[in-house]
Amino acid sequence: MSRKVALIGATGSIGRQAVEIVEAHPELELVAAASGSTPVDGLAPLTQVGGDLTELLERAEPNVVLNAVVGFAGLPVTLWALERGVDLALANKESLVAAGALALAARERGGGRLLPVDSEHSAAFQLQEGRERDSIHSLVLTASGGPFRGRTCDELADVTPEEALAHPTWSMGPKITIDSATLANKGLELIEAHFLFGLPYRQIEVVVHPTSVVHALVRFRDGASLAHLGYPDMRVPISYALTYPNRAATPVPPLDLTSGLTLEFEAPDLDTFPLLRLAREAGERGGTYPCAYNAANEVAVAAFLDGRLAFLAIADVVEETLAAVGGEAAADLAELVESDVEARRLAGDRLKVSA
Ligand code: NAD
Ligand code: MG
Ligand 2 centroid to 349 CA: how many Å? Predict the structure, then answer.
């Protein structure tokens, strides 16, 4: 049976790999493609650049929406799919982080599937499928540690965007690459995992694992742990989500265990990379704190990439923004957007102070 795919964020790192997966599978049909500003003509029968992408989705009538937009801008796409019960393959973690409770309520009403594309979450989803919640002791998300693993704050004071953009194990869009260097990406993923799997934060741990071969582990109450391993290649989780539950073939080779594979793990350095700690605090406080965390981080990362903010000041901007917001839960989308706008304004004010 053919599955009609709408690909939003088609020109990005995830989007381009998704096109490759769709082209390799005759049963997947790309019915719509969209981007924020780069042309997408000819990629699908229906295309759109910018604007309200939910109109495109209405016309496309997809069976599955792959949300590969970067940032809070992906929220309408996430909510559209969840509200209608259309399967959502979610790469856009920022929308679930910012709107967790609203998104889960929409999924409850819509009744569709939420299939994570983030590699750690795809792994965690696969490890937990069919297991009793009570049998799970904890979930472990792995982090590569980024290009600055092992460095001290002093050594990070004047790193440039170019240095921060050189990720050791994953090739990704610029925003998530900076998030990986600050560990904000793992902070966002911690909150993402909380909403995806309904686990309290104390049952979700982050460990640094430099080779990114183990994507996640689940520890069970009987002392057993299951791990998900594979070469770091986003085509695997993209394909898993788009062809679920069939686990279609991909061009990625099976793991070679005899070629010097090393599996090392260490605790993250929360003093040098405070954005991971701040995410856990924001998540535990709940309400719109995760939304504010995400918004301030987006503002700060854009400023860093622009050369207007120092690397270490990204965390300062987020911390100061979180200290200034009210954080009350949002009753609806309008209130959530208000929280996002307010956090961006506060973060923008901090930028002026830091400049
Ligand atoms: P990217 O910057 O390479 O691509 C972003 C895409 O979003 C582009 O197609 C862009 O045109 C589109 N876009 C931006 N603003 C938009 C808007 N307002 N409306 C519609 N489209 C818009 O980013 P990426 O690395 O592909 O990441 C996309 C998402 O996937 C992010 O949320 C990221 O955290 C997540 N993710 C990425 C990877 C990866 O390997 N790249 C891995 C895990 C998760
Ligand atoms: Mg990830």
Answer: 30
